[in-house]
Fold this sequence. Notes:
With 321 residues, this protein is α+β, with helices and mostly antiparallel strands. The protein contains 7 helices and 17 strands. It has helices at residues 28-45, 53-59, 70-83, 95-101, 113-120, 152-166, 258-280, and strands at residues 8-14, 17-23, 66-67, 128-131, 136-139, 172-176, 179-183, 190-195, 204-210, 214-219, 224-227, 230-233, 248-255, 287-292, 296-299, 306-309, 315-318.
Amino acid sequence: MPTDDSVYSYSAVLMGSPILLKLFSNNQPLASHVFNLIKHYEDLFTVNRADSQVMDINHAAGQHPVKVTPAVYQLIKCAKAASILPGSAFNLAIGPLVKRWRIGFKGDSVPPADEIITLLTITQPEDVILNDAECSVFLAREGMEIDLGAIAKGYIADRVRDLLQKEGVTEGLINLGGNVQTLGTPQGSWSIGLKKPFSTSDALVGAMEVSHKSVVTSGTYERYFEQDGQRYHHILNPQTGYPLDNELDSVTIISTDSLDGDIWTTLMFGAGVEKGCRMLNGRDDIEAIFVTKAREVILSSQRHYRFTLLDDSYRLIERTA
Ligand code: AMP
Ligand code: MG
């Protein structure tokens, strides 16, 4: 972050996460406007409360379609498109499994294998039926549940950016608990820290210098529990119903839109380093930083940002496409 005295920081806790807004003028009314906008979207998208538009869809599963506001419809449509890509690790219909595992919430435990197999049958993204003309969503099977937890923060970060732009802000930053979106280039760039996985302190592996970019990180260390010496984290493999298990501790995506970052972190988690880098070929706008269990930091490319390694117990590898 810039150390300039003229930076004004505003914070709140929303969506179960610490939210940080940085501006270059003292503007509490604008900060309140931003936090209200975040609350507005949280109220539409959340599945951690009984009432929201997404919960209305979930409550009507197997019964009838539900008309929703355009923002909810568009986000669900975008999430479905990412979910039905061939071999996608992203699945907006993963809700029943997320609820059953309860990872990061009280009472989390490994479900019996037969329960996981049963729940997999009600997590098919093709069973999320969209009607553009009606702006309605129908979950074809009883018990189905949409979960936008992997994508909502990215969408909201972009809407905050749009609001700030509309209000004439040329330099600013919003951090929605790991989803960072930036405006402008204060002092040349923003410096965004990359967390060291499983570190108890706020230790960093490195830092990204960005301007006008989003930086989104998903990590296995963010939410997990341990049972019988094994760690279970919160990003599930839609094919098996168990947490994705590969060489990765975290994936960071640098992109223009935070929505892309939020989707692609999940896609990259599922793909792993080799396949992930291949998938990014030809995607000039999406860049990935993989942090592996073997203490490597692998950059798919470094076109729109600069990475600095800050922890020499990690090895920096830059891939050339
Ligand atoms: P993120 O922090 O963006 O990586 O999103 C993690 C959250 O997305 C989890 O806490 C779940 O609510 C949800 N989730 C877990 N696995 C998946 C998946 N395979 N596809 C889509 N959402 C998921
Ligand atoms: Mg995500």
